[in-house]
Design a protein that fits this description.
Length: 382
Amino acid sequence: QEAARFAPGLRVLVAHTSAMPAEELGGLPAARLAGVDLVVTSYGSLHRFDWVQATPWRLAILDEAQAIKNPGTRQTKAAKTLQAGSRLALTGTPIENRLGDLWSLFDFVNPGLLGGAKSFASFARRMADSPGGYAPLRRLVQPYILRRLKTDKAVISDLPDKIEQNAYCGLSRKQAALYQQAVGDLAKALDEGVEGVARKGLVLAFLTRFKQICNHPSLWLRDGGWAESDSGKLARLRELAEVIAAKQEKMLVFSQYAEATVPIAAFLGSIFGREGCVLTGATAVKGRQELVARFQGDETVPFFVLSLKAGGSGLYLTAASHVVHFDRWWNPAEESQASDRAFRIGQQRNVLVHKFVCRGTVEEKIDAMISDKKQLAADLLD
């Protein structure tokens, strides 16, 4: 769509099963590719089809390049073995969790510049404790980074502001009881001497339980109840939604739990008096653009509830001027990506981002960790 809009002369091939049968896609002849200027495909297709690796490309562009931040994954390895005369990596979030993310991107763009993965990790640890901080690394990588911020008026003069704020929520009595019970269950299990991988797995499982209880007891109990009185977050969401409905504005709501999207949408429908849109990983690829077009173009559609992974990137949802993160993800970049579905070129109103945090719970710890990760990226890039 964007190629047709900005470069209608380009001959474009969409190499994806949503555009052509898998059998045809698996054996594309060289003659077919010779008649094409631009091939658009997915990261998952890089290691799936032999012709992708066999073709000598003039230019390889990775969009949302943080997808190759983990060097050990198949899609990262496939991206780095592409035969290309030039390489570009496009991302708003070159550092998502640790400095190793940046190393992996540079291993694609300029292999060898930052040395091997192990030596770079040792180098990064020494920098963290040195008086000069990350200045040596910043000087090394800056010639290869073109950084542009949407908030820079010299880059985009007419984009409004994005205002982010935490929306603190209390726990209902049911949530507090379940949360305390879960804390006790975890303490008991750890006291029994679980070690190694089993201990890590146990802690991760309980972290998920804590986060689900913070959203709504029914998300953890799977009882289908979803009563408003059982969740402090639903009470907070009502307060926000009533104001947004009165102003006749639109909102996006993100949750990392796909199973929470439909109950949240039903709850918002009762407040706005109209149905909204819902998008999760189960939504067919072809149907996603229809949902976006409906939300963008139909004034009677007041909200869009999306799962974070499925709806957090690639969508233009500038009809919304409010974004709610119903729960917090470990990665600040993923949250920012999701918020920027509304905060992008074409947005005419200020965007308010509301991040729900339950007081006295693990969500406050996650919020603090997200702030630390943001500071790491800022120290290196800004």
